[in-house]
Design brief:
The complex is a heterodimer of chains A (about 325) and B (about 300). With about 325 residues, chain A is mainly α. Chain A is built from 12 helices and 2 strands, in the order αααααβααααβααα. In chain A, helix 2 (about 30-55) runs antiparallel to helix 9 (about 210-235), helix 3 (about 65-90) packs antiparallel against helix 4 (about 95-125) and helix 3 crosses helix 9. Chain B is mainly alpha-helical and about 300 residues long. Classes of the chains: A mainly alpha (about 325), B mainly alpha (about 300). Chains A and B meet through helix 5, helix 10 and helix 12 of A and helix 4, helix 9 and helix 11 of B.
């Protein structure tokens, strides 16, 4: 992979750039349609970048990212819905109080998703390749079935009337945070272990790396940000159902990662933006969207397995 | 009596899972990857069966057999085409790439069939191609379709066992599964073996599709997803790569699901198979009848 460089690395540059951009966006964007599209882009970037840490950098193929997203969405929405009225009063409270509650909810959602990631990761990361894919898929389905059976969380009907707290500015700020954390983690000395685990697990273990530990850390960090994205998504759409976080949603995120090139953060961000804009542009042929995704997956694997946006020559 | 009724239902459901699991296990044995598109071949078997059934006289034994064999033939061909187009060019790529392609093929078939111009997402009814007779005996209800499912599955499993252990191509399959490179050294063409394996596995999935649709009397594009995943669990439970294991695993999963479905935990029915998979992989990754394969560097 890349050699360590001196000077400010790109995660720092990205964080600075995106923070400025998000403050500008929060001021400038007034058009509701642009607002919707930009928020969706921000959420998808968080999802794609966090899955990229697991699937791309660490090389563990997970198909259950939507499951972690649903944990974050449900728990953060539960916090704002259940605690909101008693903490904020009938009139909704001051903006700062709303935001504090929102962040509290997001944090709880993201931490619970990380905890679920730990619970899922410890047993399943002893497996590799195809088995891991199936087990993570299975865990995603188990999480969905469990949520559908919890009556206080709406059962099969899901949660409705979630307050609309998510703004473009905050979404972009969180997206920047996700890119920053994942980028710093990968470019650190510790983070070389993720890439070593991806490149050759047996050799990495022979060098004394605890690959299982690296896999679990990648999984937990990935799940944390998926939960954060889920919380943002819930407070953006204002209603969530367990069925909305099924296998198809996981596949959408996987397609972003593969299209961008597994392990290539910039490519994955571009792919997340492209795949959010594409359905907007191609609205007339919306019924062919998933067919297009499927063809894209096959053709990419056959012709360009390193991803669309990976221009670096592969050394392996 | 309730118990025996449930046992009968479990047996017919398990027989279908066993048929799908056999395809998973054979492909895994030869190529070491999970053919995600297998569950969609199962669905196409049911679709072909329903299309054929609409042009055949209903309620006759020969009509039903023609429908079953037709679906098996189309699925065998489809399996070979999928392998040729999507998997063969990736024979020497990393396994992850093959896995992603398999997911892509599976999604392509599912969304193609959900499209209005091809099939549509709405379920369609499956014609009663076989004679439907219902026997009542001391509160026990036995329908001819259940008997057909169990009978056909039994015949196919025995036929498969004979092919794999008593014919030249079956021996070649086992050789490739044991050691692909050594098999090539003794003059076995791996491409022929892989093509044959896909044809055989897909034909079994096609038969499973027709039998499943016959039992539930409806066909829809996503009907293969859940049975496919459960059949995969069955293959792992029995020990992936083992043919008797897949049959045993299918029957066990069918049994567990039927009895859970009849209990108070019925809403968790779909989660049980996955929970079981996780438990097997944790405590006995080789499955009930599988061999342990040491990892080589």
């Amino acid at each position: 992979m890349t050699s360590p460089r001196s000077g400010p690395s790109w995660p720092h540059l990205f964080l600075g750039g995106a923070l400025i951009a998000s403050f500008l966006l929060a001021r400038l964007v007034t058009d509701p349609y642009a607002n919707d599209v930009l928020t969706t882009i921000g959420i998808n970037v968080i999802l794609a970048v966090s899955l990229n840490l697991v699937n791309g950098h660490t090389g563990q193929f997970s198909l259950g990212h939507a499951g972690f997203m649903s944990v974050g969405a449900y728990l953060s929405a539960a916090i704002t819905l259940l605690l909101g009225p008693s903490l904020l009063g009938e009139d909704g409270g001051a903006p700062w109080a709303q935001n504090a509650l929102f962040f509290g909810g997001l944090l709880v959602g993201a931490l619970s998703a990380a905890l679920v990631g730990l619970l899922v990761g410890i047993p399943s990361l002893r497996l590799r390749g195809d088995y891991l894919a199936i087990v993570t898929l299975g865990f995603g389905e188990i999480i969905r079935v469990v949520f559908q059976n919890i009556e206080p969380l709406g059962g099969a009907l899901g949660l409705n009337g979630i307050p609309n707290y998510t703004t473009v500015g905050w979404t972009f700020a969180f997206a920047a945070l996700a890119v920053f954390v994942v980028g710093c983690l990968i470019n650190s000395t510790y983070g070389r272990g993720f890439i070593a685990t991806h490149d050759d697990e047996i050799a990495a273990e022979a060098m004394g790396l605890n690959t299982t530990r690296y896999k679990v850390v990648a999984f937990v960090v990935g799940a944390f940000f998926a939960g954060l994205a889920g919380g943002l998504y819930g407070h953006f759409k204002m209603s969530i159902t367990a069925a909305g976080f099924d296998f198809t949603k996981s596949i959408e995120i996987v397609v972003m990662v593969i299209l961008g090139g597994m392990g290539n953060t910039l490519g994955v961000i571009l792919a997340a933006i492209l795949l959010t804009l594409l359905p907007e542009v191609l609205r007339p042929i919306a019924e062919f969207r998933m067919i297009l995704y499927a063809v894209l997956l096959i053709v990419l694997m056959l012709l360009r397995p390193q991803g669309l946006f990976n221009f670096r020559r592969r050394s392996r | 009596m309730e118990f025996f009724q449930q046992l009968l239902n479990a047996l017919s459901l398990g027989a279908i899972y066993a048929l799908i699991a056999l395809g998973f296990t054979m492909v895994y044995g030869v190529l070491r990857f999970i053919n995600f598109a297998h569950s969609d071949v199962f669905m196409i078997g049911a679709v072909v069966g329903s299309l054929l059934g609409n042009h055949l006289p209903l309620g006759t034994w020969w009509g039903g057999l023609v429908c079953l064999l037709g679906a098996m033939a189309v699925c065998a061909l489809l399996g070979v085409i999928i392998e040729r187009v999507a998997y063969r060019p990736l024979r020497n790529s990393p396994r992850l790439n093959v896995l992603i392609t398999a997911i892509g093929v599976s999604l392509l078939i599912e969304y193609l069939f959900q499209n209005e111009h091809v099939f549509g997402a709405a379920p369609r009814s499956f014609p009663a191609v076989f004679p439907s007779i219902v026997w009542q005996w001391q509160g026990l209800t036995l329908s001819s379709s259940q008997l057909i499912v169990i009978g056909v599955a039994l015949v196919l499993v025995v036929a498969l066992e004979l092919i794999v252990y008593r014919t030249r191509i079956g021996t070649a399959m086992r050789a490739v599964s044991l050691n692909p490179r050594a098999a090539q050294l003794v003059g076995i063409n791996p491409n022929v073996v892989v093509t044959f394996t896909f044809a055989l596995g897909s034909a079994l999935a096609g038969a499973g599709g027709v039998l499943y649709a016959l039992n539930y009397q409806s066909v829809e594009p996503l009907m293969g997803v859940m049975p496919g995943l459960k059949a995969f669990v069955a293959a792992v439970l029995g020990g992936i790569g083992s043919i008797p294991g897949a049959a045993l695993g299918g029957l066990l999963i069918g049994g567990i699901e039927t009895f859970i479905g009849g209990s108070q935990f019925s809403t968790y029915k779909d989660a049980i198979a996955f929970a079981l998979l996780i438990l097997i992989l944790l405590f006995r990754p080789t499955g009930l009848l599988g061999r342990r394969i040491p990892e080589k560097v």
